[in-house]
Amino acid sequence: MAIRRQTRGVIKTLKIDGRDIGAHEDETILDLCRENGIPLPTLCQMEGLTAPGACRLCLVEVKGWNRLVPACVTYPEEGMEVTTNSERLQNYRRQIVELVFSEGNHVCAVCVANGNCELQSLAQELGVDHIRYPNLHIPRVVDMTHERFVNDQNRCILCTRCVRVCAEVEGAHTWDIQGRGINSHCISDLAKPWGESETCTSCGKCVNVCPTGALVEKGRPAGDVRKRQDFLHYLTKMREARR
After folding, report:
1. CA pair distance 56, 45, nearest whole angstrom
2. Could you give the C-alpha distances from 1 to 26, 74, 162, 193, in angstroms and in order?
3. pTM for the complete prediction?
């Protein structure tokens, strides 16, 4: 897990898509892309939270390196030449999105997040109109025990945003990941039903940062989910101002 470094003294010069870019050593390639208006897709990364490098959608090519690297956890080096958009990268990104769809129940037409889902938007942006892989049809739990919220594991993409915002911003540490590989899934406390959690503060931060319909408010009809993610930027700025 990459945590933003605090030293900003050293300035490095690199190229991103042929453009000369100046960078502090504590900025990631993804930071530089966003600062310079270079589009780069992500699902797990969110400003104000540590970057896990989980979704791999921000993979980039670096000249002279024999592997693709995630931009959200890669820091600049002097003279580095980065490519963010190539046929190879687009093929990888489409493949990743297709695999995410094949592992869960992401039928957009009947999802409460239809029209307000980051996974759906990314699929449209990348031109993913069909899935080349068989759906695994893994039965997962829909936890409706919480008074205000629903956790539909079938729509979870394991971005861990909920885990990180609960630990790093709210400080409750309610969420975590259990299992390995295809059996990985989010749990509350020690795999208790969410409604029985002794640590959950019902703040709703996890619901608002969830990119899909995995965590939503109860009583929302299909296509009516509205998530407020601006609070995270506000809280981050307030915390920085107090230092």
Report:
1. 10
2. 14, 11, 15, 28
3. 0.88
